[in-house]
Amino acid sequence: MPVMKILKKNLKEEVLWQYEGVEVSRGENSVTVEAFFNRDDLPFQGIVLKRNDRFVETFFSNKWYNIFEIYDCEDGGLKGWYCNLAKPAVIEVESVAYVDLALDLWVTPDGVQKVLDEDEFEALGLDDEMKARVIAGLQELEEYFESKNPPR
To answer: What does pTM read for this prediction?
Structure first.
């Protein structure tokens, strides 16, 4: 399976974070990669993201979000879904890049949803058209998870 470089960028297209993952599947408008959490343990929304937790990350070139399905490194249990609202991803042969737009959706395994970082999103000062696309992406994600049918 091909190794992919994942690039998280800001609005100025500057790389904020990069890491590697392995391509699991590729569709016409998406790529799914498997990556492992490479930071120290981090408390987050009632769970702990642990070094080597498994992330199954799906990026879309035609949607304003990406979805990270997170599994525990010790028992393999699903911890939840972390969804970044972002510009559509640029998917290439050996890399995927996305511009993070601050707003996030966290979904627990039992379906509880929480929107995160609304203040950071507002601080970006996006124009009305871009804000509307991000909000539409958030609504699409919320509907997918309410239907218990997250996009993959």
So the answer is: 0.94
